[in-house]
Fold each of these.
Amino acid sequence: ADFHAGAMPSAMSLVLGSLVLPACGSSTSAPNDSGGLTCPRGGAPVATTSVTVRDSSFDPACIVVPAGSTVTWTNTGMASHTVTSDTGAPETFDSGALGTAGTFKWTFTNPGTVNYHCIPHQSIGMVGTVIVQ
C-alpha cells in the first residue's frame, strides 16, 4: 500500500498511538500491572518503587507496591519538601525537610492504601498515594 500524509484515517492513528504509548516507560518502573486498582484521585497506579519529588507534585502521584517493598522519594525541586503520611494512614512516616537532591526511603509492610503529602505544599495539591498489596 502506498500511504502518504493524511491517508491513514484518524481513528486508526489513535488506535496505533494507544498501542505504542504503553510500551514507553521508565527503566526504574516494574511492569505496570495495577490489577484493576484505581487511585483515590482517579487513574491506575504505577508499579514502581521510585518517586520524584518536584516543586509542586510527586511523580508518579499514585503507585502500587508489594508488601515489603522499599519506596525511595528523591527531591529534584529547588524548594524543600516533606513526605508525610496522612493522619489515620496504616503506616506513619515523616521524612522531615528534604532539600534539593535529598532522598527518603520507607519500607511498606502493611497492605492497604497510604495517602501522603508535603506539609508546606499540601494546600496546592502536593499529595500522593502508595497502594500496598
Note: The first strand starts at residue 46 and ends at 47.
Amino acid sequence: MVWIKICGITNLDDAKSISELGVDAVGFVLSTDSPRKVETITAYSIVGALRAEENKISTVGVFVNEEIRRVINDCRSLRLDYIQLSGDEDRGFLKDLKEKAKDVKIIKSIRIKSKNESYRDEINKKVDKLKEYVDFILLDKYSKNVYGGTGVPFDWDIVKDCCWEIPVIISGGLDAGNVR
C-alpha cells in the first residue's frame, strides 16, 4: 500500500490543492526550530477549514524534541490524526505519549546515515526498541543540520530485506519515478 503524506503545509490554498490530488495526509511542522514551522493558530484554521468541507485527508503534527505537554496540547487543540516525532525522543517519552494520546497514531522517524551491514543491524535494533510504543516507523535521510524534510532520499537498499512487525514510511526525495 502506498500512503502519501506531504509535510510543511503553511497555508490553506496549499492544503486544499494537496487534498484535491488525493493525498492521504497533510503535515504541519509545529517544531520550534524548523524554517517550515507553522504557528499552531494557523494550523488550527487550516485543519478547521479542511474538516468543514468534510475533507477526508488526515492531519499530522510534526515535532522535534518538544516537551510532551506541548505535543499533547497541540494534538488535542488541532484534533490531529497522527503525531510525528522527528527528533531524539526516547522510549520513555514515547511510552508516556502513547498513554496520554490514546486516540492518535504515533509515527517515529529514524534518520538513516549509512548503508553498511553493521548500520543495518543498528537500524533493526532501533526499530525493535521503538515498535512497542509507536504505530509507524518513518525512515528519512540523515542530515547533520536538520532533523528531517531534506528532500533527499537515503539508499533504500539498506532496508530492502528488512522485515519489521510495524508499518514503515519511506521519506525524503520521493517523486513519481522512485515511488513506483
Note: The longest helix spans residues 117-130.
Amino acid sequence: MNAHTIHDQPPRVLLTDDDHELCKMLEEYLATDGFSVHAVHDGATAVAELKSHGDQYEIVVMDISMPRMDGFEALRELRRTSSIPVLMLTARGDDTDRIVGLELGADDYLPKPFNPRELTARLRAVLRRTQFHEAGHSDSISAGELVLDPGKRTLAVCGNPVELTSTEFAILEVLMRHAGEVVDKGQLSRVALGRRLTPFDRSLDTHIGNLRRKLGRHAHGPPSIRTVRARGYLLTTG
C-alpha cells in the first residue's frame, strides 16, 4: 500500500470539483485550517495528476458529477493502482451515490451542501487513521488465515496480499483485535470511522460488505465477518 504522509508539511489535499467558486472557497478555508490544497475540475485531470504526482498528496476530495470523467469513473480508475484515501462529495439525500462511492473504494463521503468545518473534521479523521498506522505503532496481528501489519499497512489472506482502503483497514484491524467477540456497531464507527453512528447511515455496512468480498476472494472457509442482529459484527476464525 502506498504511504502518503509528508512529514513537517501541511496535509496536501487534491480537491476535484467542477464548481470553481466552491473550490476557491474551500482552498481558502482549508488553508486557514492547516491544509495545502490543489484544485482540479474534472475526473480525468485528477487521475492524471495522481498518476504523475500521487506521492505529493495525502488525501483526495472528489465530487461525483463532473465533466470528462465523473467521480465514480475516476475513483474506479484510481483504485486500480492507489489506496490513497478518498472522500466523495455527494448530492444530499442521494443514498445510491453514497453507497456506490463506498463500494468503489471511497473512504468516506460528505453530502452537499456542507459546512466546511464538517469537511475538515472528516479529513482529519481519515488522516489520523492513516498516519497512526504509517507510524508503525503495533506489531502484526493474526486471526485465522488473516495477517495484518498496521505499521506497513498490509494484509495477507492465505499468504496472498489484499489491497484495502484506509477505512477498510481500520475496520478490519478493530475486528481482528477482537476476533471471536461481537464488536458493537457504535464502537466500531467511533474507532474506525472517527464519528458517532447516526440513524440511516449505511456507510459502515457498505464497508463491511466490501471487506467480505475482498476476503472471500482468497479465503477457503473461515474467517468471516458475521452480522449479529441488533448488536454488531463478529470476526470468526474457525
Note: Residues 1-7 have pLDDT under 50 and may be disordered.
